[in-house]
C-alpha cells in the first residue's frame, strides 16, 4: 500500500461556437482577422471603457447548459459571476469575470475508451472521468503584434 497516491486533474478551456462575445454584442471573429471596431469585433465594454456594463449572451448560456447535459452535469439552480483580480500588461480590465465559486453546472462525467497495457488480455479499458464543474468566464484578452 503506497503512502501517496497521484491524482491528475485537467482544466480544459473551450470556446463556445456563438456569434457574439460572452459579455458584449461584439461579433466573434476568426483568428485570421484581429479584433477591431471596424470589423464589429470590439465593444466599449471589451476594452474596459468606464461606464459600460456587461450584457450576458443568451446563446452562451444556452450552449453551456447544452454542454452540461452532454457531460451529465447537474445544472445549478444559482450561478453567479465574480471578478478574479490580477494584473498583466495585456489585460485591459485588470480582472477576469468568472464563475469560479458559483459555476453553471457541477458533478458530471464523461466516459472514454483508453488503450490498456499492451501485455494485458484486454486491449482497451473504459474509464469514467469526473467533471467537477462547467463555468463561463471571460477571455481576458491578449496583445498581438502584426507586421
UniProtKB/TrEMBL annotation:
InterPro entries: Asn/Gln-tRNA_amidoTrfase_suB/E, Asn/Gln-tRNA_Trfase_suB/E_cat, Gln_synth/guanido_kin_cat_dom. Keywords: ATP-binding, Ligase, Nucleotide-binding, Protein biosynthesis. It comes from Entomoneis paludosa. One of its GO terms (cellular component) is mitochondrion. GO terms for molecular function: ATP binding; glutaminyl-tRNA synthase (glutamine-hydrolyzing) activity. It comes from the Eukaryota. Residues 7-145 form the Aspartyl/Glutamyl-tRNA(Gln) amidotransferase subunit B/E catalytic domain. Pfam families: GatB_N (PF02934). This is Aspartyl/Glutamyl-tRNA(Gln) amidotransferase subunit B/E catalytic domain-containing protein. SUPFAM superfamilies: Glutamine synthetase/guanido kinase (SSF55931). One of its GO terms (biological process) is mitochondrial translation.
